[in-house]
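WARN no homologs supplied; continuing
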Amino acid sequence: RMVSEQAAAAKAAAEEASRVDAEEHVARVMEGADQEEGGGSVSKCVAELNSLATSDDFAAVCAAVSLYSSHEHPDVRSACNIAATNRNKLMQKMRTKLRKAAQEGGIADLQQVLEDSEPYSSQLGTQIQTAQKRHDQLQKALSELEALSPSDDIAQAITTLESFAALPKECADARQSLQRQIESMLRTIGEELLHLCSSKAIDTIDAALTRHGDLTKHPAVDATVRDNYAQLLAHRASLTSGSIGLLGSFSDSDDFV
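OK structure emitted
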């Protein structure tokens, strides 16, 4: 029985030694594998960073630079510095695009650059806000221009037209359209006033003088309209004086029927 116990103990010791040897062997194998994988990982990191050195994908460039900037391997850090240079170039390029769009661009230009700048929101927040503000300003102006109807209030339409004189592209197109409508209406008004200068319909003349009186005071109104208005005023006065003279001649007459 004692021999059996000793044999069992010896067998267990042998099995334990074998297990330890196996674990140590596995550890050595794994360590070698890790070293090989580490070397491969460095090459992979460098290749990834090199591919981003000329990439336009700002989000990917930033993510890689952030991930590898503190890498322990010098080759990775060197490649990361090159990618970081590209990141800075992309930021400067987008900063310029945002500034130019805010200064010169139309609504569509600003909309496009705002979409393109979404990945840059953390770095260029102030410039993006400026471009967004300009976009909203132009959109509001365009809505006001498109909502104007010269037939409702031509004087107000002229005033609004002047206030939006310097706006670009879509607003400039809407402004030109409104300008053409106003010019057409002013021609019509000028012709109406001139036509009434040969009329004796005092009520119609008075209505036209009342309707267009404020308009002729606007400095932007064509001189022809103002001249025709002044001519109609004189004509209206002559009709009144003529009527008074006629009544006077009747009152002085002895011919009573």
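Confidence is low (pLDDT under 50) at residues 1-5, 18-39, 244-251.
OK
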